[in-house]
Design a protein that fits this description.
The protein has 104 residues and is an all-alpha fold. The chain has one domain. It has five helices and no strands.
Length: 104
């Protein structure tokens, strides 16, 4: 996650748009539930979801956005780690297949 923070993943150029959307849907229970479900589907834990929603309800959109971006960075780290594991398994599969062909 630190890598992404250092790479500037937390720019707030989209903050104006997020604030506009928030103001349009402020207090709408349907949007609250939809956001809660979307955060859950995105892999956020209960505490993280509560924190983001509480910040949003208080109008602290910048802070809520930052929490979501940190969650995104965490997911990207997990994605890259999974990719490294797949690459390793691919290498082991190729090596094993080569050894099998050499013995036949």
């Amino acid at each position: 996650m630190i890598y992404y923070e250092m790479q500037g993943a937390f720019h707030n150029h989209e903050l104006g748009i997020v604030k506009e959307i928030y103001e349009e849907h402020k207090g709408n229970a349907m949007d609250y539930e939809r956001m809660k479900q979307n955060l859950s589907d995105a892999g956020c834990g209960d505490a993280e979801i509560k924190e983001i929603l509480d910040l949003s309800e208080k109008g602290l959109i910048t802070e809520a956005l930052q929490k979501m971006k940190k969650g995104r960075c965490r997911l990207m780290e997990e994605l890259h780690e999974s990719g490294r594991k797949v690459d390793l398994l691919d290498f082991l599969i190729r090596q094993t297949e080569k050894e099998m062909q050499a013995t036949n």
